[in-house]
Write a structure and sequence with these properties.
The protein is an alpha+beta fold. The protein has helices at residues 28-34, 37-44, 49-70, 129-136, 139-146, 153-171, and strands at 13-20, 79-81, 87-89, 95-102, 105-112, 117-122, 182-184, 194-197, 208-212, 218-224, 230-235. The chain has two domains: 13-96 and 105-112, Ribosomal Protein L22, Chain A, CATH 3.90.470; 119-227, Ribosomal Protein L22, Chain A (Alpha-Beta Complex), CATH 3.90.470.20.
Length: 238
């Protein structure tokens, strides 16, 4: 538990934390006590307990991490929301963050200066990969996906999806952003690139994408609109 620790985030460094909800359910009352009135009201609107617990654990850990980075009390953390319901700090700070969850895992990304986007997905195989890709991916991405071995199709799909999602979360336009108008690489778990943006041929050189595998059967990605020197990964549950 990091409630008493003071974390340091250096310039041009991304720090990514991940957690397993199953390892944190016994702390649900503690995490609930950290939330604001508004967050507790949001939590109460979830129909299923699993989703409610996911929200409470994610927000509780996020608050502890933010308080540690900012060196303030947890209750001093307050949020505002974009029109796409993305949480931002309600006060001025150079610290930027983003959160994602899938299955029973969550990831938290932190950076100084510019917005950051992170996404995690549990790799599923119970859908028609190529059919779904036709609705969301660029022509180049679809062509690359079609060349994948059948056994790699689902994993390649989620490589692509997490990279695209992290990009649009950092870009700030939400899921209304045209997913088929930019292209990312999808051939390797740990090698990620923004290959093309139709609206600006130079923009691909302004972004850095990173992929990571925090757990078996999961894949994640993080994106920032600038160059960085280092990225660190941490396990909240360790």
């Amino acid at each position: 538990m990091l409630s008493h620790e003071k974390l340091e985030l250096k310039e041009k460094t991304i720090q990514v934390w991940h957690c397993n909800f199953d390892f944190n359910r016994d702390k649900i009352d503690f995490y609930t006590s950290l939330l604001s009135k508004d967050e507790n009201q949001r939590a109460s609107r979830f129909k299923f307990k699993k989703d409610k617990d996911c929200y409470i654990i994610t927000r509780g850990i996020l608050r502890l991490l933010l308080a540690s980075y900012l060196k303030i009390e947890v209750k001093e953390i307050s949020f505002k929301y974009t029109s796409y319901d993305k949480p931002l700090l309600a006060f001025e700070s150079e610290l930027k963050f983003n959160v994602s969850h899938s299955g029973n895992r969550a990831v938290f990304a932190f950076f100084k200066g510019t917005e950051i986007g992170v996404d995690i997905e549990k790799i599923k195989t119970d859908f028609d990969v190529l059919e779904l890709a036709q609705n969301f991916f660029s022509k180049t991405e679809i062509a690359s996906l079609e060349k994948q071995p059948k056994s790699e199709l689902a994993r390649a799909f989620f490589r692509c999806w997490t990279r695209k999602e992290s990009f649009i979360k950092a870009e700030g336009s939400g899921l209304s952003f045209p997913l088929d108008k930019f292209t990312v690489s999808l051939n390797h778990d740990l090698e990620a690139d923004l290959l093309e943006t139709e609206w600006n041929p130079l923009e691909k050189d302004q972004w850095q994408l990173f992929s990571f595998v925090p757990f078996i059967d999961y894949i994640g990605a993080v994106a920032v609109p600038c160059s960085i020197a280092k990225i660190n990964y941490f396990n909240w549950d360790a």
